[in-house]
Amino acid sequence: MSSQHLLKIVPSAQRATLEEYARHTREISVKLLNAIGDSLGLEESYMEKMLDLTNGHQIVVGNRYPPIQSSEPAIGLPPHSDTPLLTLLLQHGAVDGLEVFHNGHYVPVRIMPDTLLAHAGDLLEIVSNGKYKSVLHRVMLKGESTRMSIVTALGSSIHTMISPAQKLVEIAENVAAYRSMSYLEFVEITKRNHAPPRLSGIEPSPETTRGQRDGGRALLRRWFGDHPSPAAAGGKTEQKLCFSGAVGAAFSGGTSTFPHREKSSRWVNPSPAPPPGAGRG
Ligand SMILES: O=C(O)CCC(=O)C(=O)O
Ligand SMILES: [Fe+2]
């Protein structure tokens, strides 16, 4: 991994630290994904091998949620699920706010010091043929202090075909719950629909659906998009894509801060070359 993948917003003094953080969290994510593969009865290191995690795309995002003025809770980040395979979330400091959707309502996730929280993402739900559900979550702000979190998410390499593991399809009497597509195609479809397709497992209220759609849009723009986007909380939540890259698959490092990411902040120089019809050059 080289510092060319670090976006310019990262001050040079912090680059080494961020690179080290990205390296360690990548290793932890790969181990967890392999363990998840084991738990599903897949062959050893299935996730690492089949999803080409050595070339997997990793992003690191810093979120800063400023204090809210009103006594009413405010949305810091609208409901969404994370697109890649696995998210590791570090909630920094002492300001809670994360909530996950469980059994029909949002449940607060209290901060546990020095703890990484793992979220299953959309791609993991696909690969596991729905056994691991992608987690719908949001951030609600209730207090007068600044909340900070650091998110790192690992996906496959962007041209890897994502499909339910064959063994799990056989166990499910040859029913694949999701069709096969490349990670890139998944992102493209999601962007075109302006929302991550909710994969399965929950029956959200219309309000949740709306929030999820908006949240998904904000997230996708932040992570993959090329449009300026008003972030959550009236545009006040500050989110910085600090790092995005992978060994062998680079992300353009020209820009910078969500929500004012410029057009040049797109997938570039993917390796290997995109398959025909992949939609981007
Ligand atoms: O700040 C948090 O706890 C959650 C952040 C999050 O869900 C995200 O950045 O995708
Ligand atoms: Fe998230």
TrEMBL record:
Transmembrane segments: none annotated. Pfam families: 2OG-FeII_Oxy (PF03171). SUPFAM superfamilies: Clavaminate synthase-like (SSF51197). It comes from the Eukaryota. Residues 55-156 form the Fe2OG dioxygenase domain. The keyword Metal-binding applies. This is Protein SRG1. It comes from Platanthera guangdongensis. The gene is SRG1.
